[in-house]
């Protein structure tokens, strides 16, 4: 990551596991992640002005492990609302997705609402976070919008970053800001100019054919770049929508409060009828014929036998496997070394019967040699030498 900020460990793992797709569709270049079981209707995440497809990596990892399909996109180079509608529809046709669930934050939420208004048959539900219904507020705050396409990149980046609330933050909010700032550094001048143009393009959201019951609004209660008045207008427009207020999270709650956001996303998908397929997630244990024979009707989730084996402590694991055949029965259990365990080098010599027997044989041979020398050379006192040998080498044996 650029900007002098080291990438989080979970983001590095995400990049190693989830491929990034880059495809041209018509005149637009699309950059997106697509992860999870393909048979599940996808949740498509649309970022804000400062975001990329990478900012939703925590949602991609968490929801895909639960059996949901998540697609996170970059906003391509589109310069007006009509161009966005045409480009996004072609993208859905290319990935062979006809009806979608959209999750948009900030500008991404506005674009999701725009698509739901003009392509109602293709949108099944919406999740909106810190978004708005019309662009006139941003157009008034940016009088130099007509020349944005000629503005140098460093000025565009500075303008975008000044919109992010500065000052002291809680650590998790500060980390989310650092991550997004690093993502802004990866955006080109055309990326930033086209997104700022969309934000200032004269447009507003009209009535939707989508029922309010299929909309979830997730807003943070602390300060963020979207004024509270604009967020309140969204809530007033959809009074029947399901609301989820987060106490704090800043501009990027999907990064700063991922557990809460992921929970609300899962609840929304279940409520609108999306059935997760956790059985299709690689590495998830599947119920076998042997396991399902004693359950009668069976439960909705397969029983995880690992909680009695792999997840058990070492002491309990041996009890649970007692009496059951195992491929590791022929191998001795691995016991960690400790200071209290006996060391073979520290054992006294002669501690085993075999060692005592070998010393007796050596002493007997010595006696034979002594007798031989005494008989033939008559020079050594037999009793003294024998007593000396036996007492020195094996005190417990007296001859």
UniProtKB/TrEMBL annotation:
List the Gene3D superfamilies: alpha/beta hydrolase
Disordered, as annotated region: 278-353
Q: Name one GO cellular component term.
A: cytoplasm
Main localization (coarse): cytoplasm
Q: Compositional bias (Polar residues) spans?
A: 321-331
Where is the protein found, in the record's own terms? Cytoplasm
Name assigned to this protein: Maspardin
Q: Which organism is it from?
A: Helianthus annuus (Common sunflower)
